[in-house]
Amino acid sequence: MSEYNVKKLRRTHKGRIVAGVCSGIGEYVGIDANLVRIGLAIATLFGGLGVGVYAIGWLLMPDEESDSSIVQDLLNKQQNRTDWSGEQKPQQ
Predict the structure, then answer these.
(1) In degrees rounded to 5, what are phi and psi of residue 58?
(2) pLDDT category, 91, cuts 50, 70, 90?
(3) How does the record classify its membrane topology (predicted)?
(4) Nearest to 64 by CA among 6, 9, 18
(5) 65 DSSP assignment
(6) Where are the domains of the chain?
(7) 83, 89 Cβ separation under 8 angstroms
């Protein structure tokens, strides 16, 4: 059998306006990114939820050129700076 073509949720560069969250979601789901943008705009107007959802997507969705998200990069950086006892490792 051939390789499985697995879709991954990523922030894309094609169609990006701010951070590529809506274009990544649109590509993953198979709809136009403008529909996702309109949905987030409506959610923002009715309680501000759209801004939070976009920010969470920006932090948790990896860029299409990266394997890890912004949060994963920050956690890995922090984990490399401290050991399990909580003491900081000396800088080299």
Answers:
(1) -65, -40
(2) low
(3) Single-pass membrane protein
(4) 9
(5) T
(6) 21-81
(7) yes
Tell me, what's the pLDDT at 58? 92
* Residue 61 pLDDT exceeds 70: yes
Give CA–CA dist 43/21, Å, rounded: 15
Rounded Cα gap, residues 30 and 24, in angstroms: 10
Identity (one letter) of the amino acid at 26? G
Distance CA 31, CA 76 (A): 33
Q: How confident is the model at residue 39 (pLDDT cuts 50, 70, 90)?
A: very high
Instruction: Give the Cβ contact number of residue 15 at 10 Å.
Output: 14
CB 81 within 8 A of CB 88: yes
This prediction's pTM: 0.71
Task: Look up residue 48 and give its two tokens.
Answer: 């501000």
Determine the average pLDDT of the residues in 3-24.
83
